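step 4 of 6: structure.
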Amino acid sequence: MAKAGRRPGPSQTREQIIRAAREQFAERGYTRTTLRSVAAAAQVHPGLLHHYFGTKQQLYRDALDLPVDPWEVLTRLLTGTPRDQFADALARQFVSTWRDPIAGARLRAMARRTYGDADATSMARAHLETVLIPRFASALDVPEANVAAALSHLIGLTLLDTLIGVDQLTSLSDEDLVALIAPAISRYLTPGRQPVSRAPHRQHRPSSG
Amino acid sequence: MAKAGRRPGPSQTREQIIRAAREQFAERGYTRTTLRSVAAAAQVHPGLLHHYFGTKQQLYRDALDLPVDPWEVLTRLLTGTPRDQFADALARQFVSTWRDPIAGARLRAMARRTYGDADATSMARAHLETVLIPRFASALDVPEANVAAALSHLIGLTLLDTLIGVDQLTSLSDEDLVALIAPAISRYLTPGRQPVSRAPHRQHRPSSG
C-alpha cells in the first residue's frame, strides 16, 4: 500500500467515490462492480474504499442511501424468530420501517428515485437478483421465485400504503395490516408449502393445430 | 349553452384541457374534480369536455394516458369469468398486459411517472381510493382492504417483473407466473375466505400497566 491515490478533503473524496459507485452499479450491475473498479473510476487509492466503506455491500448501501441494510435485517429476523413466525415478523418489520416517520421518509425518497429512473432501477435489479433474493431463498430453503413473489407483495404494499397512500390501507393499524398480508407472505416462504420448480421456466407454447 | 368559451385549434384545446385536468386531479383529488371545474381552469366551454371526453372517468384515463381502462377490464373479467376462476383471470390479465411490448411500455412509462412524482402519486391515490377499490370490493363482495392488498401484490409484481425486472420473475412463462401468485390473489378476493373487519381499523394501543 505504498502508492497513495490523489487526496482531496475527506468528505469530498467520499462523495466522489459514492458518485462513481452509483454510476458503476447502474451500468455494470452489482456483480461486476468491485471496490477496485470504483476506486479506479473515482481516481482514488483502493485502500480508501476499504477505509470508508469496508465492503462492497456497505458501499452499495451507502450509494443507495438506504437507512437500513435489508440483508442485515433479514439475518436478524432469521436468527431471532421461530420459522413459523418468520413471515409475520418480516411483514411487521416492513410495515413498521416504511411507516416510520424518519426511516420511512428516507425509504420513500429512495423508492421514488428507484422506480422513477431507469438507472436507479437497474441498480436495484442487480442487488435484488444476484444478492438479496438468492441469499434469502437459500437461507429459507424455498425457490427464488417464491422469495421474489413475497418481495413483490411487500414492495407493492409499501407502495400503496406509504407512497400512494390509499385510505383502505393507511387506516389500518400496523397489526391489522400485518394480519392482512402475513398469510400470503407465509405461503411463499414456507418450504414445501407451495411447490414451484427450480428449473428454468421459459415455456415453449405448443403450436396451435 | 349560448355562451361559448375561447376556441384555439382543436388539438391545442384538447391538450389545454388535459393539462388542466392533470393539475386538478393531483391537487383536488378525483372526487372534487369535475368536468365543469376543469373547463373553468382550462378556460373552455364545459360542452367541449363532454365532446372530447364524454365522462370524468374518460378524462381521467386520458389525463393518466393509460392504454387500458382498469375498470373496463375488471368489468369484462367480472362478467365473463366464473367466480372461482376470477383471481386467475385477473392475474393473467395483469401479467399479459404489463408484459405486452406496446401496452406494457406505455404502462411502465406511466408507472415511472406515478411512483417518481408526488403529484402523479396523489392523482393515482384519488382514483384508486374513491373509485377503483370501492367498486371492485362491492362487485366482489369482499372488504376494501382485501382488494387493496390484492392490488398491492399485483402492482408489486409488475414492478419487480417488468420495471425492475429481476430474473427470478422474468424467466417465468406467463402461465408459471400466474400460477405462482394466483392463490394469494384468490385468497384476498374470495368472500368469506379471509375475514377482515369492515369497520374502521385504527386501533388504540392498550396503555401498558
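step 5 of 6: annotate
 - The domain at 10-64 of chain B is CATH 1.10.10.60 (Arc Repressor Mutant, subunit A).
 - The mean pLDDT of chain B is 84.
step 6 of 6: archive
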